[in-house]
Amino acid sequence: MLSARIRIAARLLAVAALAALTAGCFQPMYAERTDGTPGLREKLMGVDLPPIDKANASREARVGVEVRNALAFKLYGTATGMPPTHRLVIRFNTSKSSLIVDPSTGLPSSENYGIDAQYNLIEVVSGKSVMTGTTFSRVSYDMPGSYQRFARNRAVRDAEDRAANEIAENITTRLAAFFTAGT
């Protein structure tokens, strides 16, 4: 009985020692730096987002604006006024595919909307590309029937917005990793 308590106490002591040793290595990504170097938040605020090049008044242009707006909110929040240190150029293609087709009408009852995006982070001072990447998003939506055109259009638009937000989240995560680790 006594030896079991000693073993448990030794294990707890070992866990506490490991936690104390690794606590000095941990640094939150979004924490402010005390040494005067810019933190991750300031580095993300230095990313310029030029408009995504798509044909005006097209459905993809609206998705491009949605991606850009979601990225701006995730990178800057409500802050403005930082001079740009990097420029993020984004290109993307969209796709739709039918997942389920009603056998009686031959019309799709569920579809999949996808965005495949490529992005390039360019340093403003040197004009060199410092990071490139690709990401994708696939979201599904239900088709309410052939007689409900407004509901169908709204479902497509909602799927486009969800896919755009997912693309923005993926790019933001990749940018945060780049500015934190440098790779």
From TrEMBL:
Keywords: Signal. InterPro entries: LPS_assembly_LptE (IPR007485). Residues 1-19 form the signal peptide. GO terms for biological process: Gram-negative-bacterium-type cell outer membrane assembly. Pfam families: LptE. It comes from the Bacteria. The keyword Signal applies. The keyword Signal applies. GO terms for cellular component: outer membrane. This is LPS-assembly lipoprotein. It comes from Bradyrhizobium betae.
